[in-house]
C-alpha cells in the first residue's frame, strides 16, 4: 500500500482513506461482527478477527514497506481501528496494540532492531505489546520499579508490568525499565523482549468489565536475559520515548472510542426507526430525535478532532501533547456518553445481551482509563496551555 497523503482536510478525507474505510467496514461486518457477542460472552481471543485482519494486511498497517509492511500513514491506522471497534472493541485492539507496541521502535530504535522485529509483525507471524505500567506506577509511570542491569553482552531485567493488553498472545514486548535509579525519569530505558527470552513469565488473565476478548495480564521478568542490542535508542532515553509514543498513539484510543460510539449510534438509530410505542415509531418523538441528534453531533466532533490530532502527529508537529490528549479525552468521554444513551434509547432491550449496546457501553469505559486516565489528559492539556 502506498503511503497516503497525511494532510487532513476537515471536510473530506482522501479517496485512498475513504476506500480504506469501505474495505475495513466490509471486512468487519462480514468477518468480525458475527463473532463479537460470543467473543465477549466467552472471554475468548478473537482469532477470526486476527486471521481476517492479517490476511487483508490491516493488522499492523503502519509498518513501513521496507520491513514488509503496508507503509500506510497514522490516519489510515486510526481508520482501521475505528471501523473494527464499530463492531468489536476487543478485535480493534489487534491493530491498536500492534501500533502501540511498534511505535517506540519506529521512533527511536536502531535500524538493526527494526529489521529484527518488524518483519515478523508485518507478516502476521507475531504481534507486539507495550509494557509501561506497574501496580504502583500507573499515572505516575516515572516511579516504576522494574530494573534492567547490563551484564556483558546482555541486559538482565527484573520486575513486573501490569495491565498488558494482549499479553500471552504477543510474541514481542516493548518494555520500559530503570537502568539508573539516581536519574529518575532520565534513568529509564526502553527494551524489546521476546516471549522466549529466559526469565520471561506471563501471569493469569484479569477479569474485566469490558474488552473481554482481549487478554490483559501481568508480565514478570525473573532475571530475564536479553541481548544488549535490544535496547531501543540510547540508555536513559526510554521515558522520553514513552511520552513521544503516547503523543502518536493516544489518538488511536480516540479512534477506538469513536468506533464504539458510532456502532452504538447505528444500533440506536435502527432501533428507534423500527420500534413502536403509543401507535408510532420511537423516531417520531421529538425528545428522542434530540437525543439522536446530540449523539451524532458528539461522535462527529470527536472523529474530526481524532483525525486532526493523528494527522498532526504524522507530520511530527511540535507540541503534540495538547491535541493528542484532547482527542483521546474528548472521544472517550463521547463514547461513554453515547453508549449510555444508546442503552437508554433501547430501554429494557438495551440492558440485555440480545443487543450489542450493553457490550459497547462496557467496552467504552476503558477508553477513559488506559493510555492515561482522562484526568491525566486534562493535566497534560492544562500544562501545555499554562507553561
Let me know the average pLDDT: 96
Cα-based radius of gyration, to the nearest Å: 21 Å
Largest sheet: 4 strands, mixed
N to C succession of SSEs: HHHHHEEEEEEEEHEEHHHH
Span between N and C termini? 41 Å
Structural class: alpha+beta
Percent of residues in helices comes to 40-55%
Q: Percent of residues in beta strands?
A: 15-25%
Low-confidence stretches: 5-11
- Count of β-strands: 10
Helix tally?
A: 10
Categorize the overall geometry. globular
Strand arrangement, largest sheet? 1-4-5-8
Describe this structure in words.
By secondary structure, the protein is of the alpha+beta class. Helices cover 51% and strands 15% of the residues. The chain contains 10 helices and 10 strands. The chain has helices at residues 15-42, 47-56, 74-85, 89-108, 111-122, 238-274, 286-314, 320-346, 357-366, 374-386, and strands at residues 128-131, 147-151, 154-165, 172-178, 188-194, 200-205, 216-227, 231-232, 276-277, 280-281. A 4-stranded mixed sheet has the order 1-4-5-8. The protein has a 4-stranded antiparallel sheet with strand order 2-3-7-6, with no helix packed on it. Strands 9-10 form a two-stranded antiparallel sheet. It is globular. The two termini are 41 Å apart.
Amino acid at each position: 500500500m502506498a503511503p497516503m497523503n497525511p494532510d487532513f482536510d476537515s471536510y473530506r478525507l482522501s479517496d485512498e482513506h475513504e476506500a480504506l474505510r469501505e474495505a475495513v467496514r466490509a471486512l468487519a461486518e462480514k468477518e468480525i461482527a458475527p463473532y463479537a457477542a460470543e467473543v465477549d460472552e466467552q472471554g475468548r481471543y478473537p482469532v477470526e478477527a486476527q486471521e481476517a485482519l492479517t490476511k487483508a494486511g490491516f493488522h499492523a498497517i503502519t509498518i513501513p514497506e521496507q520491513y514488509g509492511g503496508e507503509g500506510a500513514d497514522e490516519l489510515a491506522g486510526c481508520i482501521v481501528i475505528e471501523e473494527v471497534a464499530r463492531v468489536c472493541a476487543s478485535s480493534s485492539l489487534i491493530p491498536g496494540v500492534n501500533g502501540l507496541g511498534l511505535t517506540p521502535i519506529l521512533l527511536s530504535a536502531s535500524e538493526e532492531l527494526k529489521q529484527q522485529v518488524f518483519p515478523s509483525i508485518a507478516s502476521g507471524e507475531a504481534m507486539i505489546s507495550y509494557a509501561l505500567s506497574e501496580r504502583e506506577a500507573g499515572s505516575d509511570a516515572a516511579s516504576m520499579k522494574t530494573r534492567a542491569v547490563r551484564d556483558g553482552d546482555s541486559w538482565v531485567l527484573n520486575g513486573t508490568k501490569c495491565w498488558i493488553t494482549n499479553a500471552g498472545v504477543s510474541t514481542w514486548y516493548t518494555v520500559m525499565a530503570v537502568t539508573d535509579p539516581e536519574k529518575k525519569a532520565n534513568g529509564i530505558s526502553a527494551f524489546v523482549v521476546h516471549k522466549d527470552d529466559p526469565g520471561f513469565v506471563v501471569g493469569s488473565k484479569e477479569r474485566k468489565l469490558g474488552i473481554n476478548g482481549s487478554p490483559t495480564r501481568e508480565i514478570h521478568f525473573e532475571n530475564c536475559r536479553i541481548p544488549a542490542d535490544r535496547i531501543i535508542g540510547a540508555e536513559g532515553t526510554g521515558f522520553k520515548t514513552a511520552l513521544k509514543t503516547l503523543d502518536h498513539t493516544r489518538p488511536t484510543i480516540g479512534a477506538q472510542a469513536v468506533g464504539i460510539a458510532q456502532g452504538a449510534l447505528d444500533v440506536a438509530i435502527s432501533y428507534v426507526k423500527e420500534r413502536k410505542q403509543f401507535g408510532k415509531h420511537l423516531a417520531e418523538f421529538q425528545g428522542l430525535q434530540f437525543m439522536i441528534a446530540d449523539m451524532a453531533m458528539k461522535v462527529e466532533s470527536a472523529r474530526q478532532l481524532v483525525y486532526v490530532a493523528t494527522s498532526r502527529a504524522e507530520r511530527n508537529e511540535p507540541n503534540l501533547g495538547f491535541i493528542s490528549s484532547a482527542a483521546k479525552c474528548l472521544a472517550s468521554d463521547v463514547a461513554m456518553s453515547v453508549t449510555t444513551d444508546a442503552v437508554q434509547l433501547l430501554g429494557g432491550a438495551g440492558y440485555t445481551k440480545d443487543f450489542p449496546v450493553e457490550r459497547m457501553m462496557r467496552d467504552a469505559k476503558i477508553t477513559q482509563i488506559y493510555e492515561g486516565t482522562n484526568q491525566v489528559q486534562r493535566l497534560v492539556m492544562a500544562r501545555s496551555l499554562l507553561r
